[in-house]
Amino acid sequence: MTDDQTPDDVIDEHEPDGSMPWWRIALLAVVVIVVGFYALRMGAIAVAFAFPPTPPVPNNVVEMQHTRHAHGSDSWQYHRVPSPCDTIEFYEAQGATCTVEVGYCSEEPDAELLQESALAATCTGEEAFAIFVMGWEAEIYDYTEHTRIIVERNIPWTRTR
């Protein structure tokens, strides 16, 4: 400062002029993007844990019973009027692997005589959701008045995709 300048006339080069340097803006943008990515991912995991999906079930079923063994481990029993073959086709269309018992859904003329029990088929499948995998199994029983479906779900929360 010279002798003829007053303190108000001197401009301090270190005083902020009200704008933020570009590198701080870029750093802030990167931090917001990274935090947002992980927040969305953790949010999806929390929602998936709180509301796990249910196994596929065909239309026109009546739920007869539901048992919760643990969080993510349940079993349901349904009754349905169509034949067990329609139910088996539904589960195969869902990507399940079905083991059909002898005498069911066959074109053989004596197929009914080969049936050993009411169990018509067992179908198994998996479904990935969030970072988890749900495994399910459907047992399809053929009775005179209805088809019974017993569906079991198991989500091993420690197994991820």
- Elements, N to C (H/E): HEEHEEEE
How many individual β-strands? 6
Q: If helices are DSSP runs of H or I spanning 4 or more residues, what is the number of helices?
A: 2
Structural class: alpha+beta
| Principal-axis shape | rod-shaped
Q: Mean pLDDT score, rounded?
A: 86
**Strand proportion:** 25-35%
Q: Pick out the low-confidence regions.
A: none
Q: List the strand order in the largest sheet.
A: 1-2-6-5-4-3
Rg, Cα atoms, Å:
31 Å
Largest sheet: 6 strands, antiparallel
Search tags:
161 residues; alpha+beta; 6-stranded antiparallel sheet; rod-shaped
Describe the model.
The chain is 24% helix and 32% strand. It has 161 residues and is an alpha+beta fold. It has a 6-stranded antiparallel sheet, with helices on one face. It contains 2 helices and 6 strands. The chain is rod-shaped.
